[in-house]
């Protein structure tokens, strides 16, 4: 049996087991499933997403000629031998390959969810949508790594977008417009099928938006004997959202509880850092729930994306970069202790396996660039100490937070990468001082580090190792919702 067939068999076994053990209720009306409508409509919406993406690429893409597919290109790409691993950065960049492909996968997935498919059955559609795009929508050879990224990131971001769409869709006109931007395919399904979420209280446990001024420091590649450092004033925006209560979660429904964090910093001349970190329970069990302690544990699925570079509006055209992304399956514990009536301490820990991680290896001005496709392990720790002020909303108060994430990854055998070990670290400290029920002064410091070490002599094409770091010190205001 070929290696591809073995991988497909393992996926099908996982899929069938999950759909039988972890069946979930549908959130849309009517609750009856009409497959003769749901399947064609989902496929039509997936095709529409790809058609819009192809048109956008033709009109505004930097390499728009690739979007003009032909009968010959389709015929060639339909053959399994056309699929390959990308070597180097090629025409696409880290931002496009690792985030935009995942974002497209999220639309495919959310389309299936809005058409009454549960989480596990919906996993089929990012796969179908990616194969359709790679074979029909571009003339270049299909990229296996793009298929994996679209699938693995799409199921996580897609479920999050789907659930946030349902929350906003319960509100007024403004909320419904926002919901449409989150999941356009969900709105299409809603209009055609007259579906809608069940009326119920909001499941968003906590959300906040902080923005202000910051100072960005970074070390990037070495050109000759010179190490380049960037020191720039910048602006930032940090968004955090917690869906449902993480400390009392007990459910076999995937992403019945999830956390989402997005951070963006922009400097002039154009340098930027964008981070997206999300984790959701696949299945959770309650450990304790009393006056002093609340704790849950379970299996969680993670999406971590970090990109730092120049030329944000040019879709990551610079070469001084620090880039890393990973999809992980972890064992998770989320614990909160009430120290007294106003003071509480919370801890979220994750430990697990990262079967798909990607780093951009930038060799410098006269060296080659490579996408490193890797697997490895990860450890994450999120700590928070919160003191609520008297006569103030319980969601606000003095809040001190600390987070630390460490990934240790190695190249995936039989890919075009050279043998390399990549270590990525992301950490940060935050503090907010309340000025009222919804507004606080906000200060934070965020640090990223990427270290790539070739495990063997790679010759003159690559330096012995690379070290990149970025630090962003932030001061601003935070609004709590």
Total beta strands: 12
Radius of gyration: 23 Å
Q: Would you list the SSEs in sequence order as H and E?
A: HHHHHHHHHEEEEEEEEEEEE
Largest beta sheet, briefly? 12 strands, antiparallel, barrel
* Spatial order of strands in the largest sheet: 1-2-3-4-5-6-7-8-9-10-11-12
The unreliable regions are 19-26
Helix content: 25-40%
Number of domains: 2
Separation of the first and last Cα atoms: 54 Å
Overall mean confidence score, pLDDT: 85
The CATH level-2 architecture of the largest domain is identified as: Beta Barrel
Q: What structural class do the secondary elements suggest? A: alpha+beta
Q: Which outline best applies?
A: globular
Note the total helix count. 9
CATH structural fold name of the largest domain: Lipocalin
Summary, kept brief:
The chain is α+β, with helices and mostly antiparallel strands and about 475 residues long.
Secondary structure topology:
Blueprint: H1 3-21, H2 35-60, H3 71-77, H4 94-114, H5 119-122, H6 124-136, H7 144-168, H8 173-182, H9 184-193, E1 204-223, E2 226-243, E3 258-267, E4 271-289, E5 293-310, E6 322-338, E7 343-362, E8 369-387, E9 398-411, E10 420-434, E11 439-454, E12 466-480
Antiparallel strand pairs: 1-2, 1-12, 2-3, 3-4, 4-5, 5-6, 6-7, 7-8, 8-9, 9-10, 10-11, 11-12
Helix pairs in contact: 2-4, 2-6, 4-6, 4-7, 4-9, 6-7, 7-8, 8-9
Structural account:
This protein starts with a helix and ends with a strand. 41% of the residues are buried. Helix 4 (94-114) packs across helix 7. It has a twelve-stranded antiparallel β-barrel. It folds into two domains: 3-193, no CATH class; 204-480, Lipocalin, CATH 2.40.128. It is globular and about 70 Å long. With 481 residues, it is of the alpha+beta class. Helix content is 28%, strand content 42%.
């Amino acid at each position: 049996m070929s290696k591809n067939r073995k991988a497909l068999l393992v996926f099908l076994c996982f899929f069938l087991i999950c759909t039988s053990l972890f069946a979930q209720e549908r959130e849309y009306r009517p609750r009856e499933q009409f497959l003769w409508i749901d399947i064609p409509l989902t496929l039509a919406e997936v095709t529409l997403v790809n058609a819009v993406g192809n048109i956008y690429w033709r009109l505004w893409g930097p390499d728009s000629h690739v979007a003009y597919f032909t009968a010959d290109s389709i015929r060639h790409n339909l053959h399994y031998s056309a699929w390959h691993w990308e070597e180097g950065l090629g025409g696409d960049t880290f931002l496009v390959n690792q985030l935009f492909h995942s974002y497209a996968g999220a639309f495919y997935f959310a389309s299936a969810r809005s058409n009454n498919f549960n989480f596990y059955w919906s996993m089929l559609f990012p796969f179908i949508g990616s194969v359709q795009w790679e074979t029909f929508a571009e003339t270049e050879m299909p990229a296996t790594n793009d298929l994996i990224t679209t699938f693995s990131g799409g199921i996580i971001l897609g479920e999050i977008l789907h659930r946030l769409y349902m929350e906003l869709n319960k509100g007024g006109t403004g909320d419904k417009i926002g919901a449409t931007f989150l999941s356009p395919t969900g709105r299409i399904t809603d209009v055609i099928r007259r579906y809608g979420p069940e009326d119920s209280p909001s499941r968003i446990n906590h959300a906040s938006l902080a923005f202000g001024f910051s100072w960005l420091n970074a070390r990037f590649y070495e050109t000759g004997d010179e190490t380049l450092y960037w020191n720039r004033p910048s602006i930032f925006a940090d968004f955090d959202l917690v869906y449902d209560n993480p400390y009392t979660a007990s459910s076999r429904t995937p992403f019945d509880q999830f956390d989402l964090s997005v951070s963006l910093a922009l400097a002039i001349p154009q340098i930027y850092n964008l981070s997206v970190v999300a984790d959701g329970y696949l299945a959770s069990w309650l450990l304790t729930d009393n006056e002093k302690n609340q704790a849950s544990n379970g299996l969680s699925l993670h999406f971590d994306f970090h990109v730092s570079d120049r030329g944000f509006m040019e879709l990551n055209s610079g070469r001084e970069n620090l880039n890393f992304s990973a999809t992980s399956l972890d064992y998770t514990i989320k614990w909160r202790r009430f120290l007294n009536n106003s003071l509480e301490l919370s801890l979220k820990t994750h430990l697990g396996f990262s079967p798909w991680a990607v780093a951009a290896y930038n060799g410098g001005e006269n060296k080659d660039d490579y996408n490193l496709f890797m697997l490895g392990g990860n450890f994450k720790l999120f700590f928070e100490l919160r003191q609520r002020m008297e006569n103030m909303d319980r969601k606000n108060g003095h809040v001190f937070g600390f987070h630390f994430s460490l990934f240790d990854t190695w190249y995936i055998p039989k890919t075009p990468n050279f043998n390399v070990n990549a270590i990525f670290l992301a950490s940060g400290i935050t503090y907010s001082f309340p000025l009222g029920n919804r507004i606080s002064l906000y200060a934070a410091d965020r640090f990223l580090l990427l270290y790539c070490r070739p495990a063997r002599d790679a010759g003159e094409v690559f330096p012995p190792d690379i070290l990149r770091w970025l630090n962003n010190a932030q001061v601003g205001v935070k609004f709590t919702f």
